[in-house]
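Ticket opened by: R.M.
Priority: normal
Category: complex prediction / small molecule

The reporter submitted a protein together with magnesium ion and asked that the result be attached to this ticket for the collaborator who will pick it up next week. Submitted input follows.
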Amino acid sequence: MQLKVQEVSKRFGSVHALDSLSLEIESGGVFGLVGPNGAGKSTLMRILATIEQADSGKVYLDGVDLGKKPNEMRRVLGYLPQDIAVYPNLTPVEFLEYIAAIKGIGKAVAKKQISGILDTLRLSDARKRKLGGFSGGMRQRVGIACALLGDPQVVIADEPSSGLDPEERISLRKLFLSMAKTRIVLLSTHIISDIETTASRMALMKSGKLIYVGAPSELALYADGDLENAYIQAVHGEAVI
Ligand SMILES: Nc1ncnc2c1ncn2[C@@H]1O[C@H](COP(=O)(O)OP(=O)(O)O)[C@@H](O)[C@H]1O
Ligand SMILES: [Mg+2]
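Result attached by the on-call engineer:
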């Protein structure tokens, strides 16, 4: 599969959230999106998820113009927004059943998937507790579970590791890596080690523009193999990339 972003721009008042941005993302490896706060990562992801429209430019999924046919994306998409909302009075199982029904997944299939996903995300022990009492990290994992329901072919996760402890982060990396073999997996993160260990390609955004696209290992070369330092130098314009 291939996702192609072509000269996409988006403004909010005087802010250029995306400034004629072009990018190609393929299945076969995790694609990581990094950049300082306000760089435009979430805006780009919302446009790809077809819940926001670009002012200009186009997005294609396998050659289909999503501006004209957004459902082509919606029917294959699992999207984790940056700020997820869960219904406090539901248990994880009830919440996921509710989302599965909205996604049009049959009851029997949903039941099986939910049980598997809760296991993978280590939420099985909390399956009967109400979401209102969950910690931030647990809530985040419920959001990830939602995104993975229905076995989406395109996974877009906006800061999926936020709030997770190191052990949870590592298991999430493994999950994304295994999913990415046959799917498009795009994730944004503030945690450079997530990119370093997971992403085969990455894009670095700043002020709505891309300042680097390529392998994390190549970016790291700008700072003697230290990706975090290379990232900081690139963001501050100290390295010519
Ligand atoms: N709905 C909105 N209304 C006004 N400004 C917005 C809105 N969404 C994003 N922005 C602005 O667009 C820029 C990019 O934001 P965002 O895409 O959230 O960046 P990131 O996810 O990289 O932190 C920021 O300056 C932000 O304040
Ligand atoms: Mg964001």
